[in-house]
Fold this sequence. Notes:
Layout: E1 2-5, E2 14-17, E3 24-30, H1 38-49, E4 53-57, H2 69-81, H3 83-99, E5 103-113, H4 115-126, E6 131-137, E7 151-159, H5 165-177, E8 182-191, H6 205-223
Parallel strand pairs: 3-4, 3-5, 5-6, 6-7, 7-8
Antiparallel strand pairs: 1-2, 2-4
Helix pairs in contact: 3-4
Amino acid sequence: MGEWLNNGPGGNRTYLAVPPSGTGPGVLVLHAWWGLTPSFADACDRLAANGFVALAPSLYPDGATTASIGEAEALAGALFDALEETDAVVLAAAEGLQQLPATTGDQMGVIGFSSGGFWALRLSQARPDAVSAVVTVYSTGEADFRQARAAYLGHFAERDDFEPPEAVQALEGAIRSAGREVTFHVYPGTGHWFAEPDRPDAYDADAAALVWERTLAFLKARLA
């Protein structure tokens, strides 16, 4: 359904999926620290099948991907060491999504998986004029949401060494105290990466299906 762009918005490798109708609201998909793997391309295809124009940029300049936790940690660490450069890639991708002929409306959604959720939260602050719906999948981040205008949906694992309950509660409190709408769900018996089918050590099919059911309903309500 989608297509790979070797030089997408921001200059990085990108995956774009357009709905069968040819047009729809835009949703930016930000990958986990594994890079822009087929799992996140599949997420774009699923969004497109439900009426959204979905764009997923590689946050890594060389389009790197890996299945190794050690390699992924090193790759993601480089992103966090270069916050401004990574922000520029995300902002360029968001602008590119807005400018696509297929994209309708002036508001977009953004979904971030794991480390991608950190950048999704940052984008909602950097572009409050454009981002009206944010979905973070097992990811938190320190942020000031007073300028944001988005509604937030979060999906979190019950047992997560990367995102303890205290971090999830702190994020929810920060969003709520800023007066933004927020709904967080915790999925019993799950661990980090439970929504990614290419992580068989963590994948939970039932929980992942519920993540998508809730996410699609949220995006349709916010971007209709």
